[in-house]
Every structure is written in C-alpha cells, then in structure tokens.
Amino acid sequence: MTTSTLPVVLAVVAATPFAASASAEPFRHNFAGSVQIDYLAVPSERIAARQSFDGATVELSLKLAVDFGDRASASVKVCVACHGMEVGMAFFDLRLADALNVRVGRFTPAFGSFPLRHDPANHRTSDKPLPYDMGRMLRLREWNLGILPAPWVDNGVEIAGTVFAEHGHFDYAVYAVGGPKAGADAVDFDFIQSRSPDRYYLDNNSEPAVGARLAGTLELGTAWTIAAGASGMAGRYDPDRQLTFAIAGADLTLRRGSLYLRSEYLIRRTEMSLGDEPAARFRYGPGENGRFADFFLKDGFYSELEFPLLGPVDVIGRVDGLRRLGNVVATSPLRSESDLLRYTAALAYRLPGGLRLKSSGEFYDFSDFEDEIAVHLGIAGSF
After folding, report:
1. In the structure, what pLDDT confidence band is assigned to residue 222 with cuts at 50, 70 and 90?
2. Is the separation of the CB atoms in 233 and 178 below 8 Å?
3. What's the chain's Rg over C-alpha atoms?
C-alpha cells in the first residue's frame, strides 16, 4: 500500500470505534471486492507496448462500507490497476431523504451511464468504451485517452436524490469537484496529474469544476424498461485558471429481460494555450479571420447490444468511436480532423462461483494510422 493510500484507509478504520461509542445502535459493515485479470494481444503489431498497455493487467477493487444508522454512512474503496494503487472513494453520505442525499469526500461524480457500472465485474467486456477509456485502447498516447476516463475520481461535494413515480423514477445530481488538471501553458488535460498520488489529490487552481446529471427510468409494462440521462461538467483545468473546458453527454438504455441496448454520446470543448509563437507551436496556421483557434472539440460514442445466447453464454456486440476537430501541436500525428472507429464482438461465459470468462476481438479503423486488430482474454469475478 502506498503512503498516500494508507492514511485514508486508516482514518476511516480508526474513526469507526469513536463513532460507535456515540451511538447505541450497532453499525452495519459491508466488505466487497472484485478482480479482473485480462490479457491483451495485438496480432497486427510486433511491439504493441509502443501504443497501448498490452499483455496482462489486473484490476482489483476492495470496498468497505459502514452504516451509522439509517441516515449516515461512510465508504472507502481501494483500487489497483495499471496506474498502481489508488483511493477510488473515501466519502460520507448523509441521507436526509430519498430525494436529498449529501456526499462529501472523494468519489466518482455523476456523469453518464457507463461509470455506474465501470467495475469490471459489472460489465461484460474486458475494456471500456472509447469515450471512457483509461489506457487499454490502441494509440492511447496519440489520442490522449478518451473524453472522460472512467471512473473519474475527484474530491468535492455532491447533492443527489431520487424521486419515485408510478411507473419509474427520476434521479438528479449536482456537484462541485476539483476537476481535470494540466500544467501551465497546456493544450489538453494531463490525466497523469489527475490520477497520480505524487502530484497530490488537490485542486490545482483553487476553483472547483461544477457539474450536474438528470436521468429518468420508465417501466413500460412488465417487459420493457427505458432509461435516459443527460450530464454536464465545466470549469478550468490549468493552474493559472485561464483555460476552460466543458463536457456534455447523453445516454439511453433499453432493457427487456436479460437483453440490453445501450448508447452514449459525449462531447468536450477544451481551450488551448496558444503560447508566445502559435505559428511555431501548431501544425496549422490561422483561420480565414487571421487568428488561431484557441480550442478543439473531441467527441465520442458507443452503442452496445448484450443478450444471452445459450445458458451461461452472453454475446456482446459494440461499435464505438472517437473524433477530434481542431488544430494540433506540430509534433502530433493527428490532423485537424481525425477519427477512430472500433468494432467489437465479445463472449462472456459464466463459470461456477460467480466468475465470468471474457473474450473479445476488436477491429480498429484509424483515419491517421494503419488499421489494427486486438484480442482480449480475461476472467473477472466479485466477492
């Protein structure tokens, strides 16, 4: 355990007996976890490590939740993956009512549908959709990952709740968090700063990013369920508080029994620093107005169909993609309009003991590079 993780875990554990002495009711503890071991091979590339985290990776999640009666709880989660050990959550929940919950600490703010099931034991493919990718996509460095890597973990406060109706329910959330980070004079997010403990889990510019989500679920008779949501987040990401960003997303899920059809779309507008000599810094010159554009757009989507085939076998078909529009630095291999499409076919086989064997094949269609093939084989389970 790293020195940055240990104090958080010890603080929650140490606080438990003091909180218990202040209440006559016994506390309810729940410990859970999940593990995924996945091997990524790229037959079309001799040394795939140059463009992705190939080979074997392990994703481990350990969560402890403590209920302080009916109105308050605390949760701590430790994750181990490609980025090493990290605190995935450390927060208090204050449940004032069904429609009013206050969360304070380190958590994943409400944005989009996929982050709700980002744990590898909760989704059927070995990797994440491209808009939420966190390092398993090919050409990850050239594309600087997806749009908002999942899970996005941040410090802050969130107010959320659920309003129940006769045939469904509505969910809302508003929050203020530290937000994405980068250095001074930046042209895009630096995700290493946001996830690396040696950079500190602190806001880098003394101004929080704000966001919100609104979603609804409607039950159509006894067979169909439809869920839809919209999300947004905005703020500044550089230490000088000069560069703005804004992210918006929409999601839709249809369910009939064990059949799911899921779709999401995300778009991000990111302001860039032009520097002292933009003509030397960027590949493309000024526009028709004689000025350099100081932002780029990056959007992405995924559509996924999941259905049971035979007994313990589930089939997953997915199409996802990314697109980047705008100027690029002179050293970038991307163009002013670059896109990526990926086609995935996957099988998930339920093993005894709640384990699941995952296998998938992926075809990458790049606009700026040779097309590639990737193959995943892994096993995941929860406890």
Report:
1. confident
2. no
3. 22
